[in-house]
Description:
Elements: H1 3-6, E1 8-10, E2 24-26, H2 27-40, H3 66-83, E3 87-98, E4 103-112, E5 118-126, H4 132-135
Antiparallel strand pairs: 1-2, 3-4, 4-5
Amino acid sequence: MGEEFVGAGWAFPMRADPTGQVALATGVHEIEQSIRLILMTAPGERPMRPEFGCAVHDYVFAPADASTAGDIAYAVRVAIDRWEPRIDLGDVVVRFDAADHGVLYVDIEYSVRGTNDPRNLVFPFYVIPPHEEEAT
């Protein structure tokens, strides 16, 4: 299974290449951009494909705790399993870096199907922490 399985697509964000043509992403870069696009799109955001995306946006106002981390990991796993068939998804781990500031990191381990090339992608996710007066 080679590059023809992975394919090529428009680079995201859309831009022009040095020759003025639409820039393309190929190989593993195209898959990485696809995963990021899935995670950044909320279901219902695309009118002609309303189910596309990841429900991770439902947790923007959730507390930065272990329960939310588990819910985010599950939402990411479901979305990637559904929308990115070119990879075998390994582990999805949500880490707290600056939870008091609302920063969580989603660490996604995967490999391109038909290859022995383990890869990972770290996707930052931000929750909106409560104000001091709301927390009391």
